[in-house]
Amino acid sequence: MLTRKRVILSAMQKRKICEKKKKNPSFSNVELAQEYKVEKSTVTNILKEKERWFTISVSQENIKKFHGSNHFAKQFSIEDFYYSEGWLGGFKKRYGLRQFKKQSEAASTPSAESIKNDCRALQQLLTPYNSEDIWNGDETGLFWKMEPSRVLACTSISGHKKEKSRVMIFCAANALQKLGVLRRHRFDIDSRYSRYRN
């Protein structure tokens, strides 16, 4: 008994099947199955999930790479060549490779000599001022109502509008490292639930 060779379609091939059917509805599933050398049931299942396959997009860079690969396959007379990112996904998973967002460009580390020179220049610049009049401060925002963007769950969770309420915090200290209270708020809160420290 002859067994038929298993054909694995890439995501882009599945998308092309959906696009062909959308452009020409008169194409039967049997014709599409023959063209891609798969079973009719495979084409039927792909078309049932057409919304999923239409959402798949490949970046222009990847498309160029894929077309380059296809060009070499034709040069070497490889007829059954199909390109996909399937192996890459498996490789990333196997070796724990993930995509990270790069932080803003870090400045090059200054030399010890340049730090000493900068400190001397700053000390000369600040000599006319009293220590309590020299301040360093920076502000930051605290989005205190915002939920995390990633969650662990058994099923998908519907999203909702992100809460953007925030508190601006300005942290400062003078050269004496003492900061007086600028403004003290008084709230009607039971003292058992609040402890303020200076």
TrEMBL record:
One of its GO terms (molecular function) is DNA binding. InterPro entries: CenT-Element_Derived (IPR050863), Homeodomain-like_sf (IPR009057), HTH_Psq (IPR007889). Pfam families: CENP-B_N (PF04218). Residues 4-51 form the HTH psq-type domain. Gene3D superfamilies: Homeodomain-like. GO terms for cellular component: nucleus. This is HTH psq-type domain-containing protein. The lineage of its organism: Eukaryota, Fungi, Fungi incertae sedis, Mucoromycota, Glomeromycotina.
